[in-house]
Amino acid sequence: LRRNADTLRVGLRARGYDTGNSASAIVPVLVGEDIAAWRLARRLFDQGVLVSPVVHPAVRRGAARLRLCATAAQSALDLEEALEAFDRAGRPSDIT
To answer: Could you give the CA distance from residue 41 to residue 26 in angstroms, rounded to a whole number?
Structure first.
């Protein structure tokens, strides 16, 4: 589980995504605006990657994020496919 969470964090950071200070199996992707979080989550969903957008009022305005949950059952291929989906989905700044 820890290895999979670390793989997600490292892969997302290498792609320019901000994962904050996360050290658990819950990996946030800080996005900013609510609409950008919703749109990025939808783009990922369309590619088969399920992430939860977390928007106001669960977080303060301008602090929207995606919530990724690493599991021990995910294979290295699962994680690589998810990271590649982030490459194809575009940056939050491109989505707003």
So the answer is: 16
Task: Give the residue from 74, 34, 36, 66 showing the smallest Cα distance to 50.
Answer: 66
Q: Are 64 and 32 in contact (CB under 8 A)?
A: yes
Give how far Cα 36 sits from Cα of 4, 19, 33, Å.
26, 16, 5
Question: From the CB of residue 67, how many other CB atoms can be counted at a distance below 10 Å?
Answer: 15
Task: For 28-55, write each residue's pLDDT tens digit.
Answer: 999 999 999 999 999 999 999 999 999 9
d(C-alpha 33, C-alpha 76), whole Å? 31
Rounded CA-CA distance 47/89 in Å is 9
pTM of model > 0.90: no
Return d(Cα 88, Cα 45) in angstroms, integer: 12
E-strand stretches of 1-96 = 26-32, 52-54, 64-69
